[in-house]
Every structure is written in structure tokens, then in C-alpha cells.
């Protein structure tokens, strides 16, 4: 049996996990799947041997202090394929799962709006939620505070636009803030067509939306 690589944990908090992997010649990590995006920072020059799914293999040459990154989902067994000691730091972004879940909430919200599913829309909102609409008398537009007020405001949007579609949606999360951009194409109750771009800025309570703050282009 080949020797096992040694893992030394240097940092493990709510955002990052930093592990130093130390390999004697021939040492290996064993098969594993990466659950997070990560960065590798080589501490030595060296050559990695990589066992991959479907019986594939490859080698990767490391240069000291020259980092590289990989996405969540990589599956492999890593071996020191060189003749000398090898080490690197593995920096995992452990809060990416939170960002993935929040992005999924934003995607579900847009899908629910397009399906005119008011219950589905409200399922994306936190218990203590708010909606700041794009137009209104205040500097933030019109404030709708609390689930009942937010629900009524969303219902009014569906009522005002018998035909409505939020298209070309893109979603991004950075820390506690999310943003969706979209193109709204609809017809109001008077038969007027509307076609404009806008965005929503979100604040979160866990995985659900505590504040939906809307902005849109004004066409004139």
C-alpha cells in the first residue's frame, strides 16, 4: 500500500478552510470529491499523479508559489509522482454552498413570478420580509413591510399585468447581497405593452429573501 499524504489543518472558519498537504514520494490522498471551489498554492516544485474517474490518469507539474483554482465537484486521487518531497496549500471556499442556495432561491423566485405562482413567490421570502418597489413617493420607491404587505404588492403586480414575463434573467450572490437582472415584457390592463430592463437587489435571512429592492429603466 502506498503511504498516505499528511493533512495539516491551518484554518477552518465559516468562509475558508486551509489545509497543508504534505507528500513523501509515492504518497497519495486517496479518492475524494471536492465539495467546494478551491485554490491550490504549491509550497514546492513537483509533479502530481492524478487518478481520475473512468480509469483515466494524468500528471500535473507544480511550480512553487504559482497557484491555480478548480471548481466544486472535482473527483480524483492525488499522488506525489516525483522523487522529492512535495507540499501544497489547499484553500477551500466553504461559504460557496450558502451562495449556491441563495442563487437557487433567486432562480425559484423568477420562475414563480413567470408562473404567476403567488404561493411560490412567497415561499422564497423570509418570515420578516420587505419589498421596495421601483416607483413611489419615497426615495426607495414604495415600501411594503411584512409578509401581508409584500404578498399584496406582488398580487397587485399580477393584477396590473395580465401578461407578464421576466426574461434574460441573470443571478449573482456576493456575501449577504444578491442581484438579479432581467428584461420585463408585458401588457397592462389597459392593453399597453411594456418592454424594459431592470434589476433586483436582495438581502437575505438565511437562504430566503429578507428584502427585494427593485430598480427598472424608465422609457419615455
From TrEMBL:
SUPFAM superfamilies: NTF2-like, RmlC-like cupins. This is Nuclear transport factor 2 family protein. It comes from the Bacteria. It comes from Tabrizicola oligotrophica. It holds the Pfam family SnoaL_2. Residues 107-210 form the SnoaL-like domain. InterPro entries: NTF2-like_dom_sf, RmlC-like_jellyroll, RmlC_Cupin_sf, SnoaL-like.
